[in-house]
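Q: Got one fold?
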Amino acid sequence: MSCFMTLQISRASLVPKSSYIAKPAASWLDDFLVWISPEAFSCCRKFVNGSYCPPDDQPPCCFPDEGPCGLGGVCKDCTTCFRHSDLVNDRPTTAQFREKLPWFLDALPSADCAKGGHGAYTNSVDLNGFQSGVIQASEFRTYHTPVNRQGDYVNALRAARDFCSRISASLKMDIFPYSVFYIFFEQYLDIWKIALINLAVALGAVFVVCLVITSSLWSSAIILLVLVMIVLDIMGVMAILGIQLNAVSVVNLVMSIGIAVEFCVHIAHAFMVSTGDRSQRAKIALCTMGASVFSGITLTKLVGVLVLCFATSEIFVVYYFQMYLALVIIGFLHGLVFLPVLLSLFGPPSRYSVVKGQPEDASSSS
C-alpha cells in the first residue's frame, strides 16, 4: 500500500498544473528502511544490553561542551542494529519492525544520521495496535504548488480529493487529503449550490408572504419577477467589480432580497388599491407612494451605505459598501422606474371598482 501510494503521488507530481502536487511524497516507511539498513552505520544502533544508542553527535554520546565525540565515552560499545544476515531481503521481520519502529520515530535527526524520524514523522504513524505488525493509519507528506488566488485554492482542494478518491477505490480503503487551508476553502466546493438554494428559499418565502398579504397571485408574481431581476443585476455588478462569490457575498445576496422588497411592495400595493386603467393607476401609485419610497427608503439607505466608503477594512468597502450601494441604486431603479412600467402593461386588476350613482328621482308635484 505504501509503495503504491507514494508511486501514485510521484506520478501526479509530474503534472503539477492539473494535480497541484509539487513534489513526490515523503514516505516514513522508506526512510525507516534506510534508517535500519546495515549501511547506515550511525543511524540504527544499540548498546550491548540491547537498548537504543543514539548517533555519536548526540547525548549521551556527545555533549555540546565536549571535544571529540564517541571515541572513548559511553557510546564506544554501540553497534548497528542489524547485519545483512539478520534481515530477509534487507527487510525486517514482524518482530524486528515492531521493536525498531518506536526507536525510529523517537530518533532525532543530526549530521551523523539525517534519517531520524522524530521531527518529520512523529505524528505520521498511529501506533495503536502496531504490536501485531500492522499500522492502522499513517500519512504521507507532500507539497502543493504555489497557490495565490481563491480559485487556485479551490482547484487544489478539488484535485486532492479527486486523487484520493481514485486511490481509495483502487486500494479499497479510506484515504483522504488534509492541508491547513482546506478547512477555509471547503465551502467553495459547493458555494454555487448553497447560494442558489438559499436564494430560492428566500424568494419563496417572500412570495408566500406577499401572497398572504396582497391576496393576489398576479401581484405576487410580478414582485417576485422584479426581485429576481434585482438579484441577477447585483450578481452582474459583482462580476464587473470582481467581487468573489463567498460566504459573505452569499449572505449579502440573501439579505438583498429582504431589502429589495421595500422598493417594490409599496408601489404594487398602491397600484392595486387605486382605480382607473393601468396607466392611470401606475401614475397614482407613483404620486402617492413614490416620494415615500424615494425619501424613506432610498435616501436613508444611501446615506447609511456611503459611510462605509471611508472604512479602513477592505472587507467593509468591497462586500458592504460596494454591494449595498449597488443594491440601493438597482432597487431604486427597479422599484420606481421599471416596476411602474411593468404594472402599466401587465398589472393586476384593481381591488375596487367604481359604482356609478343612480339618478335622483324627480321631486313630487304639489
